[in-house]
Amino acid sequence: MFYLLKLIKEVELHPKFFGPNLRETLKNKLTAEVEGTVSGKYGFVAAVPDVEKYGQGKIREGTGFATFDVTYFCIVMRPLKGEVMDCVVTSVNKVGFFAEAGPVQIFVSNHLIPEDFDFNAMEDSQFVTTDESIRIRQGTEVRVRIVGTRIDATEMFCVATIKEDFLGVVGDPT
Amino acid sequence: MSVLSPTEIPAPFKKLTRLLARSFYAQPQQSAEEPSKKKDSQKGDQAGLCIILLDALVEQGWVAEDELAASLQLPASKPLRTALQYLCKEQLLAHETHTQKRKRSAADGMVSARPEEDDDAEREQRRPGKEISLYCMDYPGLLDATQLRIHLLLQGLRDRIQDRAAELIYQCPRQDCQAVYSTLRANELISFETGEFHCEICKSVLDARLGDNVVGDDALRRQRNRDAKKLLATAESQLAAIQELVAACKKRKPCPDFGTFRSYYDARRDAAKRKATQGGQRDGRTTEAEIEIDLEGHDAAAQAQVHVPKAQPAWLRREGQKSAEAAGQELNSARTSDAAAAAPAESIQEEFKKAWLAQVKALRALPAGAAPAATASLASGDIKPDPDSEVEQVAKRSKISHEPIKVEQTGVADAPATATLPDEGTPASMPMDTCTDHQAAGALIEAGDDEDWEEAVPATTAAPKPDDPEDEWEDV
């Protein structure tokens, strides 16, 4: 799920940027530092749409660098237990399959795949239904429900299920 | 909660109890936590014991353990108690323990000459009384326990089939490693070459933990799943009979309940009393006749005493009254003798009228000065103070004596005399302007200054009220 948050970050700026485009430079630096990172508290920071306030710069003694307290808005993504999301299968093996939904990596264990799917290692690794009408292989779009999350300081990992009504394959690459 | 007699228990409850006894509670089971102490041969001795106990208890309310054992011709032994406790623990039976008070024998009350005997008596008293264990069927508990057990059993099987556990636990099969991982770390454990999870420490392929102490691969998991489905179908078919009975029992509301032993015992005692009183009324002896007799006696006695004059204060007494009192006493004695003879009410009234006339005549025969006042006081009870009587004279005297003092103290004749008048003893709170003659007299009586009034004090409270005969008789 996505959230819009207002956060404060201390941004350090080289003295060479002290000039007419200081604020733009600050915003670029902030975006480069924040976007794409995972914070254990808030989740994955997807974007910085706006900066609310640039604080007064303080010059550090000895280095000449200035630090600014920047108050900014950001869009964060945080997967929650019970959330249903669409994802793309990245790899299939006999213990289950891995999928990705943007920055989130998802694993669906074989005990959370319906009983009528069987693992087929003969050709391309895939889960196939007994009537061979539905296949789960690399690139398949799958709708899953998240049943467990693990968010570390640097990565997010989820365990999901497709063993429910209205979950499963929603699109095939072929 | 309704306290029932065992005969009122609906049939489905009895049938359910018997069915459960035969299905699940045939003999006491050792719980998983408790280590089994007994040998198998000893266990076999108790086979069917719980069935016998439950069948017996279904037909009874609260029953003592000893009585139960006697009625079943079982020895009151440890296996019996174990079986009963097992059934209590399974919430089929309710249990209460009562201590029977030790009966105090006659010898205990006597003081013995020797000190050792005293010690024995004390020790005997301190010894706790006999404990009695009481048991009865706990139908609400039985119904709840049965429903919960069946629900948990079926739910467990359904969960096993659906296999909805969010995280699957993986375990390293190596005896010296035994590392445990969950699917939340799948991305760290997976080896994309083999497509399997590998232990981070020893790199061996991990096994999934499928259930309680069962470790295996996907094939085993599927096999277990199929077994669970079969088991669920079997369980549902076999439990159908019990579930039907449970549904029938649930429709019967309120659920039969014997309540506590105290409430059960009280209800039984009340029922027995009611039965006894109903039986007594059929004898034909009604209490109405007794009531009639009582009323007659009371009326006669009351009528006999109606017009006995009340003791009057000395200051109201006249010579004529004294003679009237004496006449009344004579009359009273005559009437009571009449009442004692149990004459009919009409004849008593006739007698009374005659006596009344005789009394009036006697009063008229008295000297002319005293007679009118006395007759008036007796006939109407309307006693007005005679202007020449002692009361009036004393009151006037007191008034006259107050006046000079009042004028001297206040200087204003109209001002209320709220100051204390120690000489005369009038209460300070009583204003003299509002004080009537009678009140002044009363004040004097309270103060007790006048010797004549001291004698009259007890009589002042008894002002005659002939309209209210009961009040009159109270003081007689």
Automatic annotation (TrEMBL), chain A:
Pfam families: S1, SHS2_Rpb7-N. CDD domains: RNAP_II_Rpb7_N, S1_RNAPII_Rpb7. GO terms for biological process: positive regulation of nuclear-transcribed mRNA poly(A) tail shortening; positive regulation of translational initiation; transcription initiation at RNA polymerase II promoter. GO terms for cellular component: P-body; RNA polymerase II, core complex. The keyword Transcription applies. One of its GO terms (molecular function) is single-stranded DNA binding. Gene3D superfamilies: Nucleic acid-binding proteins, RNA polymerase Rpb7-like, N-terminal domain. Keywords: DNA-directed RNA polymerase, Nucleus, Transcription. InterPro entries: NA-bd_OB-fold, RNA_pol_Rpb7-like_N_sf, Rpb7-like, Rpb7-like_N, S1_domain. It is found in: Nucleus. It comes from the Eukaryota. Residues 80-153 form the S1 motif domain. Belongs to the eukaryotic RPB7/RPC8 RNA polymerase subunit family. PANTHER family: DNA-DIRECTED RNA POLYMERASE II SUBUNIT RPB7, DNA-DIRECTED RNA POLYMERASE II, III. This is DNA-directed RNA polymerase II subunit RPB7. It comes from Apatococcus fuscideae.
From TrEMBL, chain B:
Residues 98-127, 315-338, 377-476 are annotated as: Disordered. Residues 48-222 form the Transcription initiation factor IIE subunit alpha N-terminal domain. Keywords: Coiled coil. One of its GO terms (biological process) is transcription initiation at RNA polymerase II promoter. Residues 225-252 form a coiled coil. The keyword Coiled coil applies. InterPro entries: TFE, TFIIE_asu, Znf_RING/FYVE/PHD. GO terms for cellular component: transcription factor TFIIE complex. This is Transcription initiation factor IIE subunit alpha N-terminal domain-containing protein.
